[in-house]
Specification:
Length: 213
């Protein structure tokens, strides 16, 4: 029962991480304009994501514009897009695989060892998808930090970490932790793959070695 609970907890955490990955990719707040330094106009906030850039005015009006061309984007942006999409793809695949191996489902219920192996594979795919998202968000964040600390970057062109980037970090961590819980619960329950075998009891030989009719 404890292994089933740990398995369910891991699946829920990984599923929340999967939803967080989708939200992180869709949101435009991967980096936000910085207000550090002098002569900064605070009436206008600029956000930039993986697909669009937005400008928010102090009146509450927000205007967004999609990036014109994929070929005009730098290599960091293109790599981040590819890694995040791959992370969502593998995490979605992990949900399908892990659900087949969950103890609360009836798929492969007659073969406990096979069911545990399937759940372990699903947990491993979750970990792989989380690592892809972690690499993408860390790479993007490192680029923001380098540009911010570069003395040749204009003050009005400096950006800081956005809320969507933090969401991506958290979602990647949930996928990795949830996948680890799935693998751990299945490894603990691998030895209890089925009920113990029962062998027929042998009849005791008659005393004295005599046969009675």
């Amino acid at each position: 029962m404890a292994n089933a609970g740990l398995q369910m907890l891991g699946f829920i955490l990984a599923f929340i991480g999967f939803v967080g990955l989708i939200a992180s990719v869709a949101l435009p707040q991967w980096k936000a304009s910085s207000y550090s330094g002098d002569n900064i106009v605070t009436a206008l906030a600029i956000y930039e994501g993986l697909w669009m850039s937005c400008a928010a005015q102090s009146t509450g009006q927000i205007q967004c514009k999609n990036f014109d061309s994929l070929l005009k984007l730098d290599s960091t942006m293109q790599a981040t897009r590819a890694l995040m999409i791959a992370s969502i793809f593998f995490s979605g695949m992990a949900i399908l695989v892990a659900s087949l191996g969950m103890k609360c489902t009836t798929c492969f219920a007659e073969d406990k060892q096979k069911k545990n192996r399937i759940a372990t594979i699903g947990g491993g795919i979750f970990i792989f998808g989380g690592l892809l998202a972690l690499i993408a968000t860390s790479w993007y964040g490192n680029r923001i930090a380098k540009d911010f600390n570069n003395p040749f970057t204009p003050t009005n062109s400096r950006y800081e970490f956005g809320s969507a980037l933090f969401l991506g970090w958290g979602a990647a961590g949930l996928c990795i932790i949830g996948g680890a819980f799935l693998c751990s619960s299945c490894s603990h329950g691998a030895g209890m793959s089925g009920p113990p075998k029962q062998y027929p009891k042998s009849r005791a030989a008659p005393a004295g070695g005599k046969d009675y009719v």
